[in-house]
Amino acid sequence: MASDTDTKKPRTATARWIDFVAWVRRTFTSRLAWTIMGVNLAALAVLLAGMVAITENRRGLVDAKVDSLTAQAEIIANVITETSVSGDAPGPRMDSEGAREVLRRLSQLYVPDETRALLYEPGPRRIADSDLIAGAVEESVLAPLGEDTDDEQGLWRRWEDWIGGLFLSPEERARQDRDLIEEVKATFETGEAQTGLRRGSDGERIVSVTIPIKLIEAVVGTVTYESYDFDELIAAERQAILPFALTAFVAIMTGALWLTGSIARPVRRLADAAREVRLAGGRRVPLPDMSKRRDEIGDMGRAFTAMTDALYDRLDAIESFAADVSHEIKNPLTSIRSAAEILPLAKDDEKRAKLVAVIQHDVKRLDRLITDISNASRLDAELAREDLAPIDMVRLLGDIVSIHTPPDGDTRAPRVTLDPRGLDLKVTGHEGPLSRVFINLVENAITFSPEGGRVQVTVQRRGQPHGHIRVEVTDEGPGIPTENLETIFQRFYTERPTGAAFGSHSGLGLAIARQIVTAHGGHIRASNRSDRTGARFTVDLPSTTRSS
Fold first, then answer.
1. CATH class in words for 57-134+149-228
2. 467-493: pLDDT as tens digits
3. Residue extents of the structural domains in the chain
4. 3-class DSSP assignment, residue 179
5. 507 compared with 269, residue with greater pLDDT
6. Looking at domain 289-381, does it have CATH number 3.40.50.300?
7. What is the reported pTM?
C-alpha cells in the first residue's frame, strides 16, 4: 500500500489562495476577533482623544503666544501714553487722532502678518484698526456650489472645543466663551490686562491680549492685539504627532490580528471539532493538538481532549457492557427455551419436575442478573447525584461487621472481626455505595471461608501527613489463583467455591466495587496471604483529615 507521502498531491497556488481567503473570512466574521479588534481600536481612540486634548490645551503654547502679544501691545500702549494722553482738565484723556497716527506708524513694525491691533476709547468704542490702516482686504474661500460644509466644520469644531474644555477650569472656560467687546469692557473696568482664546467669525481660533492705556490710575483707552495663526500652530503640533499615531495604529492592528490568530482561530477549531464529534455517531474524531501551548487556550484544548477521550471511553464501556449483558442473558434464556421445548415431550412427572426446576432456577438467575445490571447502570448517576460527606470508616465497618456476626452458639459460621488501628479514620465520599463495596467484600470472604474460619477487617492510615485510609479484608479460604488476581474484577466473571450452586451469583459484585472505589479516587486490588491460607482484598481511599 502506498504511503501518505506518495499519494499526497502538492497544493496549487489557487488552492492556497482559496484557503487564505477562507481564513480571512472566518477571522473577520468571528465575534471574538471583532471583540479583540474593538478593544484595541477603543484604546487607539482614547489615545487619539488624548492627543487632541493635549494639543487643545498646550498651555505653554498659549502662554508663549500671550507673552509675545503682550510685549508688542505694551510697546504701542506706552508710546500712545507718552504722545497722545494728556492730564489737562477736566481729566485725563486720550487724543484719538494722535493715537491712530501712532498705531499707523507702529503697525508696520510691530503688527506682523496674522496679527491685528485695535484701539478702543471709553464706551467702549473702536477708534483704530491696523488692518484698515494698512488697507488689508479680508479674503474668504467659498465652498463649491451645491456643497455645504458649515455643519461638518461646526460639528468638528464643537467636538474640539468639548475635548479641550475637559481640562479647563470653570474660570478658564468662562473667559474662553466671552467675545472681544466683553474682554475690552473687563479691561476698562478692572484696569488690568485681559487675555482670551475664542472662535472668530469663520471658526478660526484667535488669541488676544488687551492692555489698558492709562494715566496714573485712569484708563483712557485700550490696545488689543489679536493673533490668527494659533490654528496653524496646533496643526503643526498634530502633524508632528501623526507618525506616532500611525505607528500606534499599525502596532495595535498587528497585535489584534496576532491575537485573533492565536485565540479566535484555535477556539473556532475546537468548536468545529466539537460539532464534528457530535455528528460522528461515536466514531473517534482527531482533535486539534494544543499540547504545546502553555496558556489558557492550551489548557482548554487539553481539557477538551481529556473530556472527549473520557466520552469515547464511556461509549466503549457502554458498548462492551451491552455486549456482555447480551451474552450473559442469552445463556439462561437458551436454557429456558430448551427446557420449555422438551417439557411437552416429558413422559413422567419426575422429568417434568426436573424441567420445571431448571426453568425456575434460570428465571431466578435472570432476575438476579437484571437486578445487578440495573444497579450497575444506575451507579454513575447515583454517584453524581449524591453529595459528598465525611465518613467515619471505623463506624461504617463496625456496622457491617455487626450485621454479619453469627448468633451466639453457632460455631460453624465464620467469625467476622474488626481491627481499627488508629483514630479519626475518615474519608470523603458517598456512604451508600462505599457500604456496598465492603458488604460485597465481607460476604465474598464469608463464602470462601471454611467452617469456623475467621474473616478479619482491618482499617488504618497509611502515609503522612494526610496519606490515605487502607481497608483490608482477609479470609482463611483457598485463596485466588495467581493468574486470576485481576480477572476477578471483570464483569460477569465468577469463581465460586466447590459445592456452590451454579448461577447463584451474577459476577458483577467485584466489578461494581472497583467502579465505586475508582470514582472515589481510590484503588482496589486482590492478593493472597503470605501464608497461603486465604485471600486478601485491599482498598485504599483518600483521607479527609490529618493523622492525630
1. alpha beta
2. 789 999 999 888 888 888 888 888 766
3. 10-52+238-279, 57-134+149-228, 289-381, 386-542
4. coil
5. 269
6. no
7. 0.47
